[in-house]
Amino acid sequence: MTASQASEAVRERRPVIERRLHPVTPLRRAWAPVAVIIGWALHDPDQAQRQLTRLTTTTLLIGLGVLIPAAALYGFLTWWFTHFAVTDSELRIRTGLLFRRTAHIRLERIQAIDVTQPLLARVAGVSKLKLDVIGTDKKDELAFLGADDARALRAELLARAAGFAPETAHEVGEAPSRQLLRVPPGVLALSLVLTGATWIWLIVAAVALPLLWTATHSLWTLLAAAVPMAGAVGASSVGRFVTEYDWTLGESPDGLRIDHGLLDRVHETVPPGRVQTVRIVEPLLWRRRGWVRVELDVAGSSNSLLLPVAPREIAESVVARVLPGVEVPSHAELSRPPRRARWCMPVWWRGYGLAVTGTVFAARHGRLTRTVALVPHAKVQSVRLSQGPWERARGVADVHVDTGANKSVTARLRDAGEAAELLRAQAERSRTGRRDARPDRWMA
């Protein structure tokens, strides 16, 4: 390229326009200094009470007069010094009041973008963008943007990540969505009532608390044990109901859309080409009703739930959309380990099963809660065989299949000869499966 051509290219390059977050953002960030003080008071309540008793009314008013403007100034300055911009190749986020930090997020490494609206944000009409990026354990986020601006920016970033040209990405807009399934609140509530975790904690509380009272006759000891148990029961029942309320699954060109939440509304997208593993979970008390729960592992994403509860035939049709060409094997098609495996895992060995089809590696475990994990051959990163001394004495071995989501699926207690053959054949199936895999740029 000559000097004149380089100058022409520089002139044609689009200017980078930096934008600020929504003006309500300082109100949220101003709470940070106040939250630090509240956290200190909760961490050491005795010391906090002693310090407060030493303060006179005048000193307390002066302190509040300094703290509130300082918190407001902190919130304003952090908002003022935060900018973001979308360039031809990356999303750039500049933050920092004293120490500047610039995050360069490559567009092709974006896995998914969620739009969340906490309760107060819904009242204010703003939203938060959370980005799943390859190679990071924590989601990057932009909080807060106007609700319409958040959806427009999300659509543009997804279009760019999917391979649309920068000149046309902002014109693509949000892809239309077709609703596939909506979980009725009554069905969700009943499924949670029939979930084993809630009943296990209730049984533990019913047995442990009377024994603890008999042994100690101490109300504080009883409360110290009862509160965590109540929290566990609430998290597995009320907490899940609030989170999974109004679960709606839709289909769009950029993936499956998931909307849910009673207080905090969350809008997630699952790009089908990046799903590594799908698990069909079947608790004991759900089997008479034919209900299952569908979980998944997505490379570079923390999204892990596809359906909280659904009839099995509907769940299998959704799995077929996430993993095209894959059929979920029935329990009769999953072969059990040899009978001698009972010496390695008494009773529970009957819960293990394995099926390998032309498209998927399927392994089952669990007796009370049965879980069938499906890994398409194209998503298998490595295959391992492990055999402890006791397993070697009984002639059985485990075969582990590793995926791109840093997770493994294990076919347990297989016959040693079958496991060796499975290890060899699975490596070949994975190699040929990746050859025909869909590109990650799913809308290209």
What would you note in describing this structure?
- The chain is α+β, with helices and mostly antiparallel strands and 444 residues long.
- The protein has helices spanning 3-12, 25-29, 31-43, 45-54, 57-80, 119-124, 147-161, 166-172, 185-193, 196-216, 219-244, 312-322, 389-394, 416-435, and strands at residues 83-86, 90-95, 101-106, 110-117, 126-133, 140-146, 178-182, 248-252, 255-260, 265-270, 275-282, 291-298, 305-311, 353-356, 360-365, 370-376, 380-386, 396-403, 408-415.
- It is built from 14 helices and 19 strands.
- It has a seven-stranded antiparallel beta sheet.
- Strand 1 and strand 2 form a beta hairpin.
- The radius of gyration is 27 Å and the shape is globular.
- The model has no long low-confidence stretch (mean pLDDT 84).
Low-confidence stretches: none
Distance between the termini: 29 Å
Strand order of the largest sheet: 6-5-4-10-9-8-7
Structure classification: alpha+beta
What is the average of the pLDDT values?
Answer: 84
